[in-house]
Amino acid sequence: MKLVVISAGLSLPSSTRLLADRLADATRRQLAADGHAVDIHVVELRDLATDIAHVMATGFPGSDLNDVLETVEEADGVIAVSPIFSASYSGLFKSFFDVLDNTALTGKPVLIAATGGTARHSLALEHALRPLFSYLHATVVPTAVYAASEDWGAAGDGADGLADRITRAGHELAALMGGRPATAENTESVVPFEQQLAALRPE
Ligand SMILES: Cc1cc2nc3c(=O)[nH]c(=O)nc-3n(C[C@H](O)[C@H](O)[C@H](O)COP(=O)(O)O)c2cc1C
Fold first, then answer.
1. Whose C-alpha lies nearest to ligand 1, atom 5?
2. What is the reported pTM?
3. Which domains does the chain have, with CATH numbers?
């Protein structure tokens, strides 16, 4: 199987690339457990920034960009990770998907993820990235993974921390790539509302 990992991080080292690598590893481990070998191809959009601007201005992609666009079209699954800039995906991330043929992701399993300076912008995944990939007719996995700066220090964390979310999203992508439904395991323990209200009542 072919898994293409797209990272739009700009820093060196890049937290976006780090998240992308951890998601790819979780997906690879689950695919291996399911008996599938996977070939992982990582694309750093930073290296293609000039080519992307050029194709947008002229309509002609350079050969490096063309190769990457073909690799994405041939992939069995895609992991797409953007840094959050001004409460949305970065311009470079959006431009890459603007130059990709708008049928290239049709029916393809795609895991979406993002990094940001603040946890308050995590919903950019739901109001920006998920609609973009829905428009492109991708099959977006249920769990989208957001890593704010504070999440990195707590990577070995408890239930529903970053490590758990990465594992769950990787399982879901591997399931879809292997032709199984991506059933989101609910690892959150929900306290019934009546119980929460009772705790607030004065004795
Ligand atoms: C121009 C710019 C705008 C940013 N806007 C936001 C933002 O709106 N919300 C947020 O949480 N982080 C914002 N950040 C922080 C980046 O999302 C964060 O540092 C990201 O993890 C950087 O990824 P990288 O290490 O892969 O380059 C912004 C950073 C830059 C440079």
1. 85
2. 0.90
3. 2-200 (3.40.50.360)
